[in-house]
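User: Please predict the structure of the protein below. I'd like the answer in structure-token form so I can feed it into my own downstream comparison script.

Assistant: Understood. Taking the following sequence of 350 residues as input:
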Amino acid sequence: MNRDFRIVERQIGRGFKPFVIAEMSGNHNQSLDRALAIVDAAADAGVDALKLQTYTADTMTLDIDEGDFFISDEASLWKGASLYKLYQEAYTPWEWHEPIFQRCRERGLIAFSTPFDETAVDFLERLDVPAYKIASFENTDIPLIRKVAQTGKPLIISTGMASVSELDETVRAARAAGCNNLVLLKCTSTYPATPENSNLSTMPHLAELFDCHVGISDHTMGTGVSVASVALGGVVIEKHFTLSRAEGGVDSAFSMEPHEMAALVRESEQAWQSLGRIQYGPTAIEVPSLKHRRSLYFVKDIKAGEVLDSTHIRAIRPGAGLSPKHMETILGRTVSRDIQKGTPVSWELL
């Protein structure tokens, strides 16, 4: 089941560079022009895909300003807002999806979205999106999982907060409904997240447990955690993206700016390239460097028949002589001819 697959023309898997997704979220600040500028900046940064979120305030929650519907958590970026007003501010108008997706196609980006209810899936199907993402807060919404999986398209699921049993139920439901190409993203659902709470060591276990590809939905600041995920088998990296954190936006505080995203694309590819294969001994490109190893050399002029002691031979660079491991075998032997200082030690001279 853990096999490579395509999203449009982009191959996904361990044998290919990481698939980097720029998440626009609500960072368009309710401006279509800004949304299109984010697409252009993401393309310039070299990402593979741009992702939206498809919902309305009414499909997410109720218009209530108190109790469970009011954000009072002191640690929250959105403290003091109701859920409804937050989603009103953050949502991407559905009529914007088509022009945003069109700009993505023009710039060579794969465009898709996270649906938050079944109506969003129906809408995105009419736009023929090539893949779907399920957010962490919806990863236990089994009816939604089934609805998306029934499209037969690749499915990326963030695993934030989910227990193993919850993920097992989610993955079983997705596969039973027709999902054959699945990626689970390690995710810490705090905003921003910290490296200490990222627990990337979970990723190989996640891949083995569910026999699928894995990646990261990364809410930390900087590139380090995402780059590290590649070494642990990550094939997908998702990061929130904005033109400028200073210009604000609902998710801007933990979003990457263009120069940071370009660095992530570059460094994650280098991390992937560095994995290579199991290799011992010199690679082809290292062979010329063998001559710079230490080896045994005669360090003074010697007459034929002299008995060698430690004043005659040293282990020095370069590497044209015998290996230093032969030093004890050679000491006490005699030389067969006159030898000039700087001559590499060889068996023929003894």
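That's the full token string. Residues 258-275 form the longest helix (18 residues).
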